[in-house]
Amino acid sequence: MTELSDLSPAPLLKAPRLSKSKFLSGLQCHKRLFLEIHHPFLATKPDAATQAMFDMGTEVGELARTRFSGGVLVTAGYRQTEAALTQTAALVQDLTVPAIFEAAFLFGGVLIRADVLERVPTAEGQPCGWRLIEVKSSTKVKDVHLEDLAVQSEVILGAGLTLLSVGLMHINTGYLYRDGAIDLNELFSIQDLSEAVAQRRVAVPERLATMSLMLLQTQPPAIEPDRHCHTPYDCPFWEHCTKDKPERWIHYLPGSKHVVSQLTQQGVTTIDEIPIGTKLSPVQRRVKENVEWVSEKLGSVLKAVQYPVHHLDFETVMLAVPRFSETRPYQALPVQWSNHIEQASGELRHEEFLHKDVSDPRKVLAEALLESLGDRGSICVYSPYERSILEQLAAALPSLKPALSRIVSRLWDLFPIVRDYYYHPAFGGSYSIKSVLPAMVPALAYDDLAIKEGGHAASQYYRMVFIETDWVERATIEEALLRYCARDTLAMVELRKALLRKCHSG
After folding, report:
1. pTM for the full model?
2. Which of 101, 112, 92 is nearest to 72 (CA)?
3. Both 502 and 360 in a single domain?
4. Going by C-beta distance under 8 Å and a sequence separation of 6 or more, which residues neighbour residue 470?
5. What is the tally of structural domains in the chain?
6. Could you tell me the residue range of the domain that residue 149 belongs to?
7. Are residues 371 and 314 both part of a single domain?
């Protein structure tokens, strides 16, 4: 294996150019920035769900531009620095251009691209002023957004422009779409952050200077992985930086990270070293004890189900830009369900539903679901999510509300049963079905599936319905979605059986 020490960069005479994203990486962790600049290949590639979030951000950014009539896009790509700077300079001088999208500026060794730079009319004879607007697909202002705007402001001001205000444009989840064209003034909120950003901007030059000096070193800073690795974003170098940590590393203790920080300060490096008497949550205690545990009450709890037992799982899509009447941005819309039905005899039957066109899925999905669930038997789920989806459907579909409410009353959640009455060391402190299933039913994992988790399922559904035009590719995605959702409900069937066997063996 090639070690990082063998890959150290040659001493630099000049620090590499930074961008706003690199600046934010440096604020999170200097080691992250060093690795991004000098050893980017050590990063873990974003998973499908993370990539889908990036894609949604791009889509939202493109839609946001339509709020600025007459705005002009700097077409040069992110690697075409000189062309982007030249195009931007020309657009700045062109007084007929009311707004510039992806404007490029270089100052102090930092290159930025501004989402929206809006020209603000000033008194005749006075130099033109500008409003800087960062566009985010998030639903509120976050601390990292202020830092983002602070470094952009520093560069734009350094490049000689006059910034009259600075703001953040984000999705307004209070917007209720009804029909017709999207009201962009309602969909997007713009918050003026000029004062808060000005306060952050004061620290930017010193921070940049510190980062530049650090990047001239031949070795990355000796920074231990800790809570900062996940704030404000998960660091892509987490796997690299933790590859040599022990299997029972103290940071793998689930639950409150405050407890982990206290233990680390005491010199505790592994879960096995946690002192006797340390106040731990029940889950943390199970992880420390590291032995299989079966509650004597598990059997009676499991046998409380009524046959036929339905095993229900939903898949949903959350659209930043609502498409269906009476929906809001990022509202979870059910588009798929799977139901494995187990009779008292052990006979198992599977039913499923997948909405495959661009129409509102809710009514037809709910009607098919009510028919599948009938009026008898417990409905096994593995989280409170299904309950919340059913309650949202009941609120949206008054004619089906009584029937859906009866369905809710039959729900039987397996998650708290596993959490409170059983533990296996292979869970690693996690009770998600993706952690529990391999430990209890090793033959029924998700490794053989094209889609392995919910975020990826949502992004693939969106692609299948709203983007993809090739019917072969659409059929491939459809098959992958059906297999994934069916695996989730079959997992609950087999998990119940495995838990019952634990009772009998005990």
Report:
1. 0.87
2. 101
3. yes
4. none
5. 3
6. 48-210
7. yes
